[in-house]
Amino acid sequence: MTSREPRLEIEYCTQCRWLMRAAWTAQELLTTFTTDLGEVALVPGVGGVFEVRLGAETIWSRKAEGGFPEPAQLKRLIRDRIAPGRSLGHSDGHKSGTVSGSRAESDG
Predict the structure, then answer these.
(1) Where are the domains of the chain?
(2) CATH of domain 7-106
């Protein structure tokens, strides 16, 4: 099996039951970056981990950042690395890193 580039990994804590949060995050990213991402992998972990990695680079770490990423913020971070000239539409308008009505805030 060959790896498709760029490869994005979402490592989530199985002890914390964050699979649904990780899956929802993956769905959001795959919907936004339909042809820009080669692969999105969900990686089971332990110890409160929730990390988003693009190749060897950690884009978001729950422990380092003190919480979970807002979807628009995460999309901007990824876009800046894989498609810098691309517009994200409404996600570009929320420079504070918050999105009202975020479903990811309700789980976990």
Answers:
(1) 7-106
(2) 3.40.30.10
Tokens of 80: 């800046």
CB distance 50 to 13 below 8 Å: yes
Instruction: Note if the pTM is more than 0.70.
Output: yes
CA distance 59 to 71: 13
Contact between 26 and 7 under an 8 Å Cβ cutoff? The reply is no
- First-to-last alpha carbon distance for the chain, in angstroms, is 34
Averaged pLDDT, groups of 10, the chain, 108 residues long: 83 98 97 94 98 97 96 96 86 49 42
